[in-house]
Amino acid sequence: MYKKIYFDFPDDDCYKKYLLNLRWKGKITCPFCGSHRNTRIRSTFRFHCNLCNTTYSLTAKTVMHNTKVELRKWLLTLYLYLNNEKLSYRKLTKLINVNKNTAYRMVNGIQLLFSRHRLLILKISGLKKDVIEIMSLMLLIDTRRS
């Protein structure tokens, strides 16, 4: 799976483009007010809502919000979490090359996602789609909703 993720997405921007299309399907929606009146900020993956005057990123209100870690590493972490019941922070630190505090935050974020949104995750898991697409949809779940 490691090779497939890095082959399909040779850099983080490729994965961000994939997530952008997966999340909003070409029609960017403000995660705070639901408006479609948005402006993309230069060539980055940040946007400005012209209705509520908020600036937000591709990962706003997701488990990946406010992270500096490559989003591909989040995908790998989710894959490892799903396939290894005893994924420790130290093991994750070595596997994806992050420090232990970052690994702790990533695993806790994914555990929180699974505890709060179990039904939605089961619904996504039942879709007949590619494994990477299913895991990416899981990462894009709005973590602020209960």
Essential attributes:
146 residues; mainly alpha; three-stranded antiparallel beta sheet; 51% helix
Describe the overall structure.
It is a single chain. The chain has helices at residues 2-8, 12-24, 71-83, 89-96, 100-116, 118-125, 131-139; strands at 38-40, 46-49, 55-57. The chain is globular. The chain starts with a helix and ends in a 7-residue tail after the last helix. Helix 3 (71-83) crosses helix 7, helix 4 packs across helix 5 (100-116) and helix 6 (118-125) runs antiparallel to helix 7. It has a 3-stranded antiparallel sheet, with no helix packed on it. With 146 residues, the protein is mainly α. The longest helix has 17 residues, at 100-116. It contains 7 helices and 3 strands, in the order ααβββααααα. Helix content is 51%, strand content 7%. Strand 1 and strand 2 form a beta hairpin.
List the helices and strands and how they pair.
Blueprint (H helix, E strand, L loop, with lengths): L1 H7 L3 H13 L13 E3 L5 E4 L5 E3 L13 H13 L5 H8 L3 H17 L1 H8 L5 H9 L7
Antiparallel strand pairs: 1-2, 2-3
Helix pairs in contact: 3-7, 4-5, 6-7
Q: Given the structure, what is the number of helices?
A: 7
Structural class: mainly alpha
Number of strands: 3
Note the run of SSEs as H and E: HHEEEHHHHH
Largest sheet: 3 strands, antiparallel
Level of helix content?
Answer: 40-55%
Task: Based on Cα principal axes, name the global outline.
Answer: globular
- What is the topology, as strand order, of the major beta sheet? 1-2-3
Radius of gyration: 15 Å
Gap between N and C termini: 31 Å
Average pLDDT value?
A: 90
The share of residues in extended strands comes to: 5-15%
- Poorly predicted residue ranges: none
